[in-house]
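The methods section describes the discrete structure representation at length, but only in general terms. Each protein is reduced to its one-letter sequence and a matching series of backbone shape codes. I believe one specimen quoted in the main text would settle the matter. An entry of this sort, consisting of the sequence and the corresponding backbone structure tokens, reads as follows.
***
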Amino acid sequence: MHAMQHENEVRFARLAQRTAFQAGRPWAFASATGLVLAWIISGPIFGFSDTWQLVMNTVSSVVTFLMVFLIQNAQNRDSAALQLKLDELIRATNSRKDVIGIEEKPEPELKSKQKELQSDGTH
């Protein structure tokens, strides 16, 4: 069961990453713009009815709802990878090792470390 769960997570991560990437492409924006224009142009045909408005509201709500989760997943993954890279750079240099993994610390500890680093003129 564990292997299947891992496989599903990998599939979802790939789907989320591809979807987030494609959503940011010019063709995606052009397609969305075309859809909105088609909806506006069809307004007089449908008499700007409540159903006409409801179709666009429903489609945009559903797409937005799903995209939030897919984009958040891709962003979480990218952020984690970036943190790992930064941590590795800190380990490889003569930098302060106490900031490795600091993104997981509670907010008060982050603020305290920020003040400490700002008052330290060497870094």
